[in-house]
Amino acid sequence: MAVQVTTKWLGDMRFESTNPSGHNLFIDAGEENGGKGEGYRPKALMLSGLAGCAGLDVASLIKKMKLKVDDFNIDIEANLTDEHPKHYDKIAMHFHFHGEDLNEKKLQKAVDLSVEKYCGVMEMFRQFSELKIETHFHKK
Q1: Contact indicator for 114, 93 with CB cutoff of 8 Å
Q2: What is the mean pLDDT of residues 125-129?
Q3: Residue 15: what pLDDT?
Q4: Do 35 and 84 sit in the same domain of this protein?
Q5: Are residues 58 and 126 in the same domain?
Q6: Among candidates 90, 138, 94, 139, which has minimal Cα distance to 115?
Q7: Does residue 59 share a domain with residue 15?
Q8: Structurally, how many domains does the chain consist of?
């Protein structure tokens, strides 16, 4: 399946990028790199893509498994190398689940399925990064 994205230069360090969903996003450098900070940073956008991919998987599995979850979020800490081309070499993903009646075993299975089987972005990151995945349960 082919996917097409078009990214158009808007001047200075700012770009607008299409998405197959029909929603566009803006990319810009920070002021320290000649931009105005009016858009997403490309490397951080990759981390958002990683969290979004895993999050969609887990949300789908929560629904299929009929689990009770009040809220969940994914925090990512990533180490950027010092040498060029700078890239993420170590990534820690923290899945946080909140609720009164959390089924920890099934939620962990949902995370594991995303990490090991479903999330294609995760598989791409495995090619260049060391991944550490942790799951945290916060009962109210």
Answers
A1: no
A2: 96
A3: 98
A4: no
A5: yes
A6: 94
A7: no
A8: 2
- Same domain? For 10 and 54 the reply is no
- Report pTM: 0.93
Q: Are residues 112 and 56 in the same domain?
A: yes
pLDDT tens digits, 32-87: 999 999 999 999 999 999 999 999 999 999 999 999 999 999 999 999 999 999 99
Q: Is there a single domain that holds both residue 121 and residue 60?
A: yes
Spell out the SS3 assignment of the chain.
Answer: CCCCCCEEECCCCCEEECCCCCCCEEECCCHHHCCCCCCECHHHHHHHHHHHHHHHHHHHHHHHHCCCCCEEEEEEEEEECCCCCCCEEEEEEEEEEEECCCCHHHHHHHHHHHHHHHCHHHHHHHCCCEEEEEEEEEEC
Q: Six-digit token pair at 5?
A: 């994205």
Average pLDDT over residues 90-106: 97
Buried b (16+ CB within 10 A) or exposed e, 85-107: eeebeebebebebebeebbeeeb
On whether the CB atoms of residues 96 and 110 are closer than 8 A, the answer is no
Show the domain range for 16.
1-40
What's the confidence (pLDDT) of residue 93?
Answer: 98
